[in-house]
Amino acid sequence: MLRPIASLIAGLTACFSKKIVLRSVGVVLAWFAFAGAIQNAVAQKQSATQSKSGIFDDSSPDVSDPAMLGENQEIVPLYHAIPGFIQAPYGPPSFGPPYGTNHVFGTWGGIQPWLQKRGVYVAANVYESLSGNPVGGKAHAVTDAGQVGVTLDIDWKKILGAGDWSNNLWLHMLAVNGHGRNLSALYGDNANQAQQIYGARGNVVAHLVWTYFEKSMFHNKVDLSVGWIPPGTFFDNSPWTCSFMNVWMCGNITPTKYLNGGRDWPSGNIGTVLRLMPTRHFYVMGGLFAVSPHSYNGGISGWAWGQEGLGKLSTHAEIGWIPEFGRDHLIGHYKLGGLYDNSSYKDLYSDIHGNAWISSGQPARMQSGQTSAWVMLDQMLIRHGEGPMNGVVLGAQYSYASGQTSAMKQRAVAAIMDTGHYWGRPKDMVGFSFQWAEFSRSAIRAEKAAVAAGVPFVAANFGTPYGVQSHENIYEFFYTTQVIPGFSVQPDFQYIQRPGGTTVFKNVAVFSMAFSLTL
C-alpha cells in the first residue's frame, strides 16, 4: 500500500521544473505582498479613524464548520488543526485537505504535529471500489477501480517567518495515481460511470489535480486564488455530492464538468478565482480560466501547462446564500451560477448549410461560445449534532448546457441523506438519490442521421453512443460506515434505466463496495 504512495511522491518531485516553480513562486509572492500591504494599510486606516461599520467590519464569526469535501470524510470533520484557508462555510470553499484530518496511523509517530507547527500539512488516501453488474447491460462484469491521492498544503507565514503580508497565504497541491477498469464501458454506458474514481488520470505515476496559491484577506471576507485549479473545486459544487458513488453526482455538476471550460477533478485549468463573503451567510465569486482544446488539460499527466491552443477563456460566476434556521442552526446552501466559454465548437448536427454533416460531407457549422447554468440547493431538516451534514438533509440540483455543442442538454437531481444517529452509529451516513439526464436535440438528430446513412456514431463530450439517445435515469442507495478513524467502507447500489441514454441494452443493476483509507 505504501509503495504506490512513495512512487506518487517521487513523481511529484520529478515532474516539477525547478526553474518554472521558482519563477512562478516569485511572481505570485510579490503580488500577494502587494495585496497584503494594501490590506494592512486599509486596516490601519480603519483603526485610526474608528470609522463607522462597513462591509469589512462584520461582527459575525469567521469560523463555521466546513462541509464534507471527499467521499470518505466523517460526518463531523476534525478540521480544527488546519487554520486559515478552511475557515469559511462551504460555499466560497476555502479548502482543507480533501481527505479530512483523521489518519489511520494517527499523528505518524509525532511527524504530523511537527510538520504542522512548521506550516506543512500532508494527507494521503487510498480508495478502492469493487463493482459488478449481475443484471442487464451489454455484458456482465466485475472490475476494481481506485486511486492513491496525496495532498500538500503550505502555510507561507510559518515557512517564511515573514511579515503580515504573508498571513493566510497558502500553497495547495494535490496529485493522484489512478488505476483499474471502467465497469460502465463494459456494460454499454459510455456517457456515465457508476464508479466514482476512474478516468482522466492519464495512467501516469502522479497526475496533477491542482497547485495554486491562495491569499485570504479582511478576516477571510476576501479570498483570491491563482494557479492550476479545477473550476469545479470552487464552482457548482455541493458538500454532499461525493457521498454518492456515481460520477455524475460526485464532484461538480453534470453536464457542466463535461464541457472543456468547466472540467473538474482531476483536470485543472490555469486560472484565478476571487471570492467575496461580506457576511457568513452570503457570497459572490467569479473565476477566469484558460480553456484547453485537448482531451487532457495539462496533457495526460496534468503537468504540461504550456499546451498549444490555450487562447480562449472560460468565465465563471456564482452567488450563494447559506442560511441557518432556528435554534438548531439548520444550515442550507442555495447557489445560482453559470459559465461562458468563448471558444468555438462544432455543432453536433448542422453543417454549414443546416443539414446533417455526418452524412452530407460538408464541414460542421461552428458555434461561437458555449454556456452552462446551474441551480443547487440543500437544506438540513433535523440536526443530530455539530457539522453541516450531521442530520437529515434534502438536496436538489438542476443544470443546463448548450445543446448544440453538448450531447447532454439538462439534468436534475433529488436526494435525501442522514447519519446513523437513530441506530447508534452517528458517524455513519446513508443516502438515496435520483438522477434524470436528457440528451440534446442536436445529438439525437445527429444519431438518427447516422442510422439513416448507415455510418458509425460519432463521439461527443459524453462518449460514443450505442444507439439513438433520449434520457437516462439513475437510482442510487449507499451506506457509509466508519470502521476505525480514517477507514470507511461503503456498500452502494445503483439501478440504471436506459444505460447510455438508449434502449439498446437492458436496464443495469450495479453493486459496489468502496474502501477508503486515509493514512
TrEMBL record:
Q: Which InterPro entries match?
A: Carb-sel_porin_OprB, OprB_Porin, OprB_sf
Q: A Pfam family for this UniProt protein?
A: OprB
Coiled-coil stretches, from where to where?
Answer: none
Q: Which family does it belong to?
A: Belongs to the OprB family.
Q: Record's PANTHER family? A: PORIN B
* Name this protein carries in UniProt: Carbohydrate porin
Which organism is this entry from? Acetobacter conturbans
